[in-house]
Design a protein that fits this description.
Helix 1 crosses helix 6, helix 4 packs parallel to helix 5 and helix 4 packs across helix 7. An eight-stranded mixed beta sheet has the order 3-2-1-4-5-6-7-8, with helices on both faces. 37% of the residues lie in helices and 13% in strands. The chain is globular. 45% of the residues are buried. By secondary structure, it is of the alpha/beta class.
Length: 258
């Protein structure tokens, strides 16, 4: 039996993965962006251990969430699932003055990774759209670029691959992998999505449980429980280091060494 926390598990793929894991007898802690969503989340996943609330667009709330997670004790796995989509038509600034997409999709998982006691397994949710991400890492905060919500989302999904691979390299004692769930008809994916919704949460749940031999790898990119192709640039260790340095500069938090 594993103990797992899933960010962004009040609905969508996070909730679906939580249900799969609870059904298999694992202990699951949920997360939602506020108390109202937290109450909804715990109702939707009977058998979940508890739920934590924090708005990941705020660095302060994200740091508080890290403290709350640590206060609950050790976890076997963390699924970094929380994200916002590509529908934002203009640059929305957070309380910290950052683009909303960057804060939630990129910086929050970085901060939680750096501050939460290391689990045995880390799973980061990406997307095939990471292939369209800007590997130059220039103007991450969209100060000079004309805002493009689709590009900002693709960039953030590339950031997840860079983070997963960098953590795998820096922390060899932790199994750190990335998952592409596919384009599926969730609230984020939209009604026109063509992927198999029943398969979309399974790989992250499978990796989090960590019972199958093929899950005992690190620094890999998965699609439907198979190793899949990731953008070649994501394997560039110099680019990974530049990404970590940028997150450090934006958050004031450094990823600890092993």
């Amino acid at each position: 039996m594993a103990r797992i926390i899933i960010t962004g598990s009040s609905d969508g793929l996070g909730q679906m993965a939580a249900r799969l894991l609870v059904a298999d007898g694992h202990k699951v802690v949920l997360h939602a962006r506020n108390e109202e969503r937290a109450a909804h989340a715990i109702r939707q996943v009977p058998g979940a251990e508890t739920v934590l609330a924090a708005d990941l667009s705020s660095m302060a709330e994200t740091m508080d969430l890290a403290n709350d997670i640590n206060a609950l004790g050790s976890f076997d796995a963390i699924i970094h699932n929380a994200a916002v989509g590509f529908q934002e038509k203009q640059r929305i600034s957070t309380v910290d003055g950052l683009p909303h997409v960057l804060a939630v999709n990129t910086l929050a998982p970085y901060i939680l990774t750096a501050l939460v006691k290391r689990p045995k397994r880390l799973i980061y949710i990406s997307s095939r759209l990471h292939m369209n991400g800007d590997a130059s890492l220039s103007d991450l905060t969209w100060q000079t670029r004309q805002w493009n919500g689709g590009q900002a989302y693709a960039d953030s999904k590339l950031h997840m691959v860079l983070l997963a691979f960098a953590v795998a390299r820096h922390w060899p004692e932790v199994l750190s992998n990335c998952v592409e769930p596919g384009w599926v008809a969730t609230k984020m994916g939209g009604a026109g999505a063509t992927g198999d919704l029943s398969l979309a949460p399974r790989t992250q749940a499978w990796l989090a449980a960590g019972t199958a031999l093929p899950t005992r790898v690190t620094g890999d990119y998965f699609y439907h429980q198979q190793s899949a192709q990731a953008l070649g640039a994501a394997f560039d260790t110099a680019l990974q280091e530049r990404f970590l340095a940028a997150c450090n500069e934006l958050s004031g938090i450094q990823l600890p060494e092993s």
